[in-house]
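Q: I'm writing a short explainer about Protein transport protein Sec24C isoform X2 for a general audience and would like to include a description of its predicted shape. Could you first generate the structure from this sequence?
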Amino acid sequence: MNVNQSAPPVPPFGQPQPVYPGYHQSSYGGQPGSTAAPTPYGAYNGPVPGYQQTPPPGMSRAPPSSGAPPASTAQAPGGQAAYGQFGQGDVQNGPSSTVQMQRLPGSQPFGSAPLVPVVSQPAVLQPYGPPPTSAQVTAQLAGMHISGAVAPVPPTSGLGYGPPTSLASASGSFPNSGLYGSYPQGQAQGHPGAQPPQRSVLPQASSFTPSASGGPRMPSMTGPLLPGQSFGGPPVSQPNHISSPPPQALTPGTQMSGPPGPPPPMHSSQQPGYQLQQNGSFGPARGPQPNYGSPYPGTATFGSQPGPPQPLPPKRLDPDAIPSPIQVIEDDRNNRGSEPFITGVRGQVPPLVTTNFLVKDQGNASPRYIRCTSYNIPCTSDMAKQAQVPLAAVIKPLARLPPEEASPYVVDHGESGPLRCNRCKAYMCPFMQFIEGGRRFQCCFCSCINDVPPQYFQHLDHTGKRVDAYDRPELSLGSYEFLATVDYCKNNKFPSPPAFIFMIDVSYNAIRSGLVRLLCEELKSLLDFLPREGGAEESAVRVGFVTYNKVLHFYNVKSSLAQPQMMVVSDVGDMFVPLLDGFLVNVNESRTVITSLLDQIPEMFADTRETETVFAPVIQAGMEALKAAECAGKLFLFHTSLPIAEAPGKLKNRDDRKLINTDKEKTLFQPQTGAYQTLAKECVAQGCCADLFLFPNQYVDVATLSVVPQLTGGSVYKYACFQVENDQERFLSDLRRDVQKVVGFDAVMRVRTSTGIRAVDFFGAFYMSNTTDVELAGLDGDKTVTVEFKHDDRLNEESGALLQCALLYTSCAGQRRLRIHNLALNCCTQLADLYRNCETDTLINYMAKFAYRGVLNSPVKTVRDTLITQCAQILACYRKNCASPSSAGQLILPECMKLLPVYLNCVLKSDVLQPGAEVTTDDRAYVRLLVTSMDVAETNVFFYPRLLPLTKSPIENTTEPSAVRASEERLSNGDIYLLENGLNLFLWVGASVQQGVVQSLFGVSSFSQITSGLSVLPVLDNLLSKKVRGLIDGLRAQRSRYMKLIVVKQEDKLEMLFKHFLVEDKSLSGGASYVDFLCHMHKEIRQLLS
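A: Of course. Here's the predicted structure. Afterward I'll give you a sentence or two in plain language.
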């Protein structure tokens, strides 16, 4: 649904954008829960501060700094789950028809009106709709009138608030489940009848206006204010075990003060639309409607003095009338998925990450390598400060490309090496200007004039371009590689090929769970798939093996030995490597000895009773081994428990949930000792990267154990309560992918910019010893580095702004290379141009990383408030400077940013910023770590998950079904849905699914016989089974980590875990629903404008 129309005619590149195959927008967090009385409103989105039973009579509440509108609960008759107003298999996803939705009787938020019929109009393709008639304009103005201050309703003195119901662990107390895989924490309870989320009241809903980009436009949110509030802002933080009911019918009879406005103009589908707001307001306003109920007595007042009640007629906002991520994604796919994206034009906004498109490099780096928050940046710092839009680039230097796109060309300039600017050291690129007949060139970054070396000289054509420009990748492409000379190598010496060291925990937990046996068995075959360059017959990577518990065991697997030899180092305080020759070997040469060793390890430690482990000395040993071999490399650490044995890096259990929502909460995310940072620094200097596979049964302090992987560019994988039968597929799939992926070792990345802006801040998994160089012991194709830019001078509209990312690294074959990515951006003097060329997905990626780093130093509430304020400032600046004048009651969003509120709300409700009671400290640290180096496609689906209906389309149709919005209202109990967010995969089965479907998919005859928590679908020979299993395999192939399947039955205890990912609904931890948050953002924007 195209809510906001873009400003005057937009060039074809200012449209919404495409993306990778099927990356639907996604997010997570936020499910309705069991019915319980609302608690007093705490800070917005925050936990409830001590559950008072009654508020003191007569006291009004102070205005929350940020809030989400109140919502109440209702249950369908008989305590059953009420599943939306549509019949089975009939839930809508998109603008509703003129069906009148009735609310079920029950309590209501503020007394909501029945849904206003929405009149959809045909899509208009011209930039502006036909001019309105004078009558329409008058009706619009009359309807937009906003009444003045409203006296609030005093709270009733005896309103009781029940304590929050306890909710079982969503991460792990369910069979074979676990959000990120957490350990059990008490027993799950079923909740009394799950109900669909309730929509709170937004002032006025009115009919759509067609937007320039074709879809229907959103109704304006205009109208009277809620009692005691300047605009429907959320009373804050109800513990969300309150699921929300479907629309409820209102008892007529309450009189309204204030004159009723004109009735809404009804139009036929042929009638011209309302006057279009520039870049999309939410259409015309409607006047108040008589005879709708007032807010319920006892509504908390927010900071205004209690006065006589003056009930007003708020209207329920139609969820179909607010911007839909699904609609935006579909529109972008349809508009931009068929044509290749050609990078030759400066400042083009690429298709969305969810669109499957082909890239043709014609001078700017592909969006697969670099995506920006805006492709048109303000000329001055004052303009940038006014707009508050962060200027950032998400860079994925070694991104994998689809098979139909060519990898970057490798350029070899021989001993002279790559040509660079003498002053700023930028590398030769398509934007360099050749002058004086080609004998000199002017640097596009610093304007320095440089001589062209004789061997590089070439004549210019009549346009001033070199005649060989199209023969040289560095003069015609946005991305390419140079072979580096010896000057770019450590100690002026070419590097040796890297090594992989497998370091296996053989303590009691690891042996008992079957992990050691499984791992050793897998490594026998996996070692044949080590990464190799191009067409090499075998990998140049050498391997070594260490096992450990309280002491370390090194193995000599030299090819000349008949049996492997073990050497034990028990002095973990002063770690050294007891052997050099025979520790790191070529797999093919030593295959028989390695196989023998892998057979013996599980037997050698089968009877161990050693439960204590060390950790820092293990990393130290791996690093020392690489140092002795004078090569870079990667450590694969398989670890099970908190390292409590006496040794450097010893940790204690400091898990303390009492710190949540206090000023000390940040300590939960910080490492408990500085030893690991020091160790990480040494690892980076050696080019030693660490990948950590964790198998905890209880708290292991992920925040501390992940420091070395995080600072060396490594990865962390977590399998809580690991059981071979349930988790082996996920673990082995992740391990295979991790071992086989192409990695750049001992890397340094620098981002150069043209005069006027500079890189000031960096986010990701890396180490920085100065302010400009990003140092990565290892970098793979899944990792991103996010860079923020600030102005240090005025930019020029004509010349634009340039970025050059240069990555120096050692390939898997030991070759030293430079990978260069260039990108040219436009500069603007008008704010409208900035807002027309933003990319919301990249903006959310940056904001999530900014917030997730913020929790290390600030209280979580402060971080959340900062995000809300920044978002409100961005949208208020647009409203003030770019939108055409309209009533303050209208919420107007820029076309490119109309999804900013829904996605930002998903970030605010995420487990790091607003944990539910079941989310462990380790889970939060783990998610924080993962998001830090995610790319735009991954954060997109992570924060707003994809919900795919499986039984709506004909079985013969094998294409991926269209997603629906992530809300319980969209679920029909006669259907089956697949939900994925890049880490988790759920198959939700409605209670009324046809028996034939159950039989075809699960091989059982009825719904009751399906095993809840099932993680593998039976392989059955029928079309539906093949289609669903094929779709699941396809989704897994798109993601960088294996997503374990969990089958969830409607109204089963596991459903609470599933609902956590229905992010448009209220969440159990107190996160606002999308509708409530949109109201709240509107209130914040109006406060800023007034």
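A: For your explainer, you could say: Residues 21 and 839 are 18 Å apart (CA to CA).
Q: Perfect, that's easy to follow.
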